[in-house]
Every structure is written in C-alpha cells, then in structure tokens.
Write a structure and sequence with these properties.
By secondary structure, the chain is an alpha+beta fold. It contains ten helices and two strands; from the N terminus they run E-H-H-H-H-H-E-H-H-H-H-H. It folds into two domains: 100 residues, no CATH class; 96 residues, no CATH class. It has a two-stranded antiparallel ribbon with strand order 1-2. Helix 2 packs across helix 5 and helix 6 packs across helix 10. The longest helix has 17 residues.
Length: 234
C-alpha cells in the first residue's frame, strides 16, 4: 500500500550574505571565494517564487544584472542560456559562471573594473514550510488536484524536491514510481520535464496536461473533490 501524497506549501525567507559586488571583477572574486551552494540555488531557481524577480527575458539574477546594471548584453546572453538542471551540482554551475565571467574579462571591449549602476547582492534563502493538511490517496486524485495547487506547492514538490530526494527528482515522480507500471510511466514523463525556462504557472499547466494524457483525468473544482482526494486531517 502506497502512503498518501502529502501536499506541502512553502515560502522563501531571503537571507543577506553581507557580500556584494560593485563590478564584474568583484563578482568574479566573490564567487571564487564563496563556496555556498545555497547562493547559486537562490540566484538561479528561487526567482521562480520571488515576487520581486520579474525579468522574463533573463531567468537568473546574474544575467539580469549583467544587462540592466553592467549594460553588457553579450555577457547577459552567455549567462542567460545556463540551465541549472544540466549541471550535477550547484558547485559545478558556480564554476561555469566563473568561467563565463573570466572569458568576458579577457575580451578587450569591456572593462571589468567599471562599477555597475547598482551592486550585485549575493543572497541565499531559507524555505519556510506550511502543512496544508491535504493528503492525496491515488495518482488519479492527484491529477484532479494539480491545477488547484498553489505556486508555492509546485515550487516545493517540483523544484526544491530535486535537492531533497535521493534520486534528485521531484516529489511527484518519486511517489508515482511506487505504483504500478502504468503510473510509473507518468512518473518518468514528469521527471523528463525541463522546468527552468518556464514560470510556475506553466509548470503546473504542463503537469496537469501530463496527468490528463497518461491517466485520462481532468481538472475538478477543489470544493467538489471527494474527501478521499483531499483529507483535511480531521
């Protein structure tokens, strides 16, 4: 018997590291010195959940700073194509960012010592967990509920889960892999999703489409869900 899937919500508590870079050389030096994987996770992934990050053209903070504050679209373009999902660790992603910065500093058309319009503040975050008291018993019920999940729940179960689970995959796939072959195939389809260049709403929509395609389920208004689908713990 597979245990119910517990829906968890979350929010981010942003933490200042006290480190900031005034120019590109500053940023290079600080990234070399600060071996903090949480910093990289914040500047690449947490923008999905941060209401203050609204730059649809540049998905990570480094690229956004490069174009808006350094006024260097060439560097911004090189940083913007980085997909953290393609790197085995945040440390390896950090090294790639350093290499891109070093390549740019070696080019003669940009002075890395010129101060940016605004400094780059290196930040990290702490995730705050909320118990929604919702427990899903079957994959079909989860498919009905996916469209009603908060964006915080999507972030927690699909993005943050990748650094919590032993497999490095999302919570939905981990749970579905405990079922039969039919449901495991859905789990593999979800694990194959590339979420980085999407918003949380787009991720939620894609998840709903995959559940519909594999299990034939459709969205159900939350208030009409059966008690077995959403258990309030009472």
């Amino acid at each position: 018997m597979v245990e119910p899937f517990t829906i968890t919500d979350c929010a981010l508590s942003v933490i200042a590291t006290g480190e900031k870079a005034y120019n590109l050389r500053d940023l290079h030096d600080r990234l070399q010195r600060l071996d903090d994987q949480e910093i990289m996770f914040f500047h690449f992934w947490d923008g999905l959940l941060r209401p203050d990050f609204m730059d649809p053209e540049y998905q990570n903070d480094f690229a956004s700073w490069a174009v808006h504050d350094l006024h260097d679209p060439r560097l911004a373009e090189r940083l913007s194509i980085l997909n953290p999902g393609n790197f085995p660790t945040m440390r390896s992603l950090r090294q790639r960012v350093i290499e891109i910065i070093e390549d740019r500093m070696d080019e003669g058309d940009f002075d890395p010592r010129i101060d940016a319009a605004n400094p780059f503040f290196l930040m990290r975050s702490q995730i705050v967990i909320f118990d929604t008291r919702k427990h899903i018993k079957t994959p079909e019920e989860l498919g009905h509920f996916i469209p009603h999940m908060s964006l915080g729940s999507i972030f927690y179960h699909f993005i943050d889960a990748c650094r919590r689970t032993k497999s490095g995959h999302n919570d939905f796939s981990e749970w579905l892999w405990a079922w039969d072959d039919h449901h495991r195939r859905l789990g593999y389809a979800i694990a194959a999703m590339d979420p980085y260049f999407k918003s949380l709403m787009e991720i939620r929509e894609q998840l709903g489409n995959l559940f519909s395609r594999h299990l034939g389920v459709t969205s159900t208004p939350e208030q009409n869900l059966e008690p077995s689908a959403v258990n309030n713990g009472q």
